[in-house]
Amino acid sequence: MPVADPTPEAKHIRDSIVTLSQMMRLEHANLHGNVHGGIVMKLVDEAGALTCMRHAQHPVVTVAMDNMSFRHPIQIGDLVTLTSRLTFVGRTSMEVRVEVEAENPFTGNRVHTNTAHLVYVALDTAGRPVPVPVLILETPEEQREFAEAEARQDERRAHRPAAGAKD
């Protein structure tokens, strides 16, 4: 939940932003000759987890990934850059938005390929959920993103299966 005055337990969104860049190589290719979507999803999860670990200063586990559309194929040889930032913090859970961009290093042409929202839970050394620092929301954009993320979190809770329920 947002706070007006920073406390030792509160952190700024900017303090946990993660940017990862990686060149896509042949081992990342699918049968169509471009980058396999699973590779992109793995990188998205890694960037999101790093953001949350930086914020919580604890290990985290992925508990949800909202829909991730593949807007543009990523080519072998492209430099892929992922930027991950917190959008919401609950008591033990955190939501991040990860944006993916592909750049042709020869032309400098960049294209936004993906955006995903993921939820992580921080864990203590025994593997139990642990409280995380609250967020300091500094800008109207951060406040808007927090409100939107809170609505997504409410929607996830509404559709979460009951504990012990069988599929």
What is the fold-level CATH name, i.e. the topology? Thiol Ester Dehydrase, Chain A
What low-confidence regions span 5 or more consecutive residues with pLDDT below 50?
3-8
Largest sheet: 5 strands, antiparallel
In what range is the share of β-strand residues?
25-35%
Q: Which secondary-structure class do the elements indicate? A: alpha+beta
How would you name the CATH homologous superfamily?
Answer: Hotdog Thioesterase
Mean pLDDT: 92
The count of helical stretches stands at 2
Number of strands: 7
Shape: globular
Strand order of the largest sheet: 2-4-5-6-3
Level of helix content?
10-25%
Helix/strand order: EEHEEEEEH
Question: What CATH first level would be assigned?
Answer: Alpha Beta
* Alpha carbon gap, first and last residue: 33 Å
Rg, please? 17 Å
Please indicate the count of domains.
1
Q: What is the CATH-assigned architecture?
A: Roll
